[in-house]
Here is the input.
Amino acid sequence: MGGDTKSLNSPLIYSTEESSFEQKFPENPLGSPTFLSGGDCLGAKGENGEVGLGSVDLEEFVRASSNMMEEVHKKRIRNVYMDVLKSYEELQFHKDHLEEAKNKILSYTPGSRIEEVSGMKVSDYNIPKKTTLLLIGPRGSGKSSLVNKISRLFDDDPFTPERAQVSYSSNGDGTYFLQEYAIPRGSSSFCLYDTRGLSADLSENKKMVKRWMRKGVCHGKRITRDSDDAHLKSKGRNRYRATETNVVNFLIFVVSGVQILQLMDTDDETKRQQTQAIATTFNNPLLSFKDEKPVVVLTHGDLLSLSDRTRIRMYLGQLLGIHPKKQIFDIPESDDLGTRFTILNMLCYCLEHADKNLPFKRNLPYKSPSSSKGVLKLLVSSLLIHAVLVIIFGMGMIFMNTLQAKVASVPNLHVSQSHGDIDCNATTVDSVPDLQPEELQPHVNVDCHASGVDSVRDLQPETPQSDVNVDWRTIRHLWSDD
Here is the structure.
């Protein structure tokens, strides 16, 4: 695919591959004499002919196990290398599916790749109006060239001018303003954002990335650093007006294959630090979406041999902690069918993982794994509680009505005695409640020394009393004395 037309059966490729990864693996590591023979080794025979543990040399056993694991690790690396190498030839077999992959991208809408799992629905996610893919990478890595290549793939017009300004000189200004490019042109489904190249200062890169990931990106916004001179800080200050801000949904980390190869094959400490700077920026937690790290696009591969491009992908996979075949996409400058299919495959990966990691809406109600059963149980429990409360309230009302009826049937003053003595020394008769004697009294003596007769009330029995003798002369006399 671009830059190297030799087939996989080429002696050059296999000679290079064998020279770098040729390993001699024993056919039966566990069947070597170290393990299965000798008097002081594991599995030695005793005097009676039975197989036993014997006197195991622990240090030798650990050394042999370590060597075995090292050989297994080397063999795994060799298999991955061969898998990546063969992937270039496999691209030629996918050219018939190019239009199908292209239509899949054209039919994309934000949120269309969401998987409804664990009871979640599309409506439970905060879906953006437009999916935003952010391109970041060192200066000269080919971000703007990648934008033009992607845009040209969907324009289907070879005479369409390039949309992004590309600097082909190390003295070029590069990108200083955030630029939004709708893909395809005029579409509102997703867009690419071209950015300024990363700096050699890690603190400046971290600050810049933090601003993009937390505050979003805005078309035409100037990108400045603290280390910029006065000319750069004043460049185009009032040229653009701010537009709406887009939240970044996924990232594409762009690196130049030529630059990485130079960093790989040198012992210069300064270049080694540049390599670590790339790894540190890439592994910034702000660039990851949950467990998903950005994809890596390898550019300028057409200037290298196929074996070198494979080695670079292996190196980046180990340096960045990603799979060299599944998450590193080699997109050279050449415009062949293999390159086009790689671009579409890369975009499919980005859009799918952007939808996969969309945030949930705020104040989203909790849904249990068995939501329908849980709601039914909650409803039944609520009905039972209300029924019990109604029964208790009804029983209380019946008891209160019965008690009031019994109280109403009892008269205020029931005098059944033949004689009664009433002492009226109190100021008012109301202060003496319930004048109902428990035992029959032979006489009732009324002493009316109270201050007023009006204070004596309700002394009229419900039934006439025959044996009650009241001396009214005495009462009249007492009243005149007062």
Observations:
- The longest helix spans residues 371-409.
- The CA atoms of residues 16 and 186 lie 46 Å apart.
- The chain is about 40% helix and 10% strand.
- The domain at 110-356 is CATH 3.40.50.300 (Rossmann fold).
